[in-house]
Amino acid sequence: MRNIRRFTAGSTPLQIIEEGEGIPTLVIGSALYYDRVFSQSLRSSFRFAFVDHRGFAPPDPSLDVATVTLQSIAEDVESARIALGWDQFVLIGHSGHAFMALEYAKRCPANVTHLVLMNVSPDYHARSQEIANRHFEEHAEPERRLAFQRKMELLPAQIAEAPERAFALFNVASGPKGWYDFAFDATPLWADVPTNMPLIDHIWGRLFHDIDILEGVEHLKAPILLVLGRHDYIVPPAYLWDEIRDRFLDMNTLVFENSAHAPMYEEHELFDRELLRWIEVVRMRNGSESP
Question: Angle, nearest 10°, between helix axes 70-84 and 97-107?
Answer without folding.
Answer: 70
